[in-house]
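User: Can you recover a sequence for this backbone? Please restate the input before giving your answer.

Assistant: Of course. Working from this structure:
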């Protein structure tokens, strides 16, 4: 099973000029927990999660702050649609991230997966065949 098999809907995106408030509105309107900031060629620049929005509010940062400045913008964890599910999930676990950006060969955004997507019954069945117990030394 591949990463692309889990993508269910188009990702929710905003442009480089989007604010934290813009992101929060998109999250509510689309019932999602993350929004990707993309450049003019649809390449991911940052990802803003619900946690980022909460931190922004708690730090009293104005809602007009640029979304790309409050989200994760460095060292984004990305995968390709043909990547193996287990390897990607393992990378998410090691990096302690809950959202995965899926890009095409040109680096353009094609989808976003949440840790929740990996808990679908059929995904769990597929992944269970790849789990090592006890886990081999890393």
């Amino acid at each position: 099973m591949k990463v692309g098999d889990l993508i269910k809907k188009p990702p929710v995106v905003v442009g480089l000029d989007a604010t934290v408030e813009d992101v929060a509105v998109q999250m509510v309107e689309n019932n999602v927990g993350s929004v990707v900031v993309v450049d003019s060629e649809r390449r991911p620049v940052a990802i803003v999660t619900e946690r980022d929005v909460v931190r922004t509010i708690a730090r009293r940062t104005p809602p007009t702050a640029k979304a790309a400045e409050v989200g994760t913008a460095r060292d984004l964890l990305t995968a390709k649609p043909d990547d193996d599910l287990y390897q990607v999930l393992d990378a998410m676990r090691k990096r302690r991230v809950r959202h995965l950006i899926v890009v095409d060969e040109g680096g353009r955004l094609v989808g976003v997966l949440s840790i929740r997507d990996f808990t679908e019954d059929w995904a769990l069945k597929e992944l269970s065949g790849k789990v090592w117990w006890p886990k081999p030394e890393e």
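That completes the design. Residues 3-128 form a domain with the CBS-domain fold (CATH 3.10.580.10).
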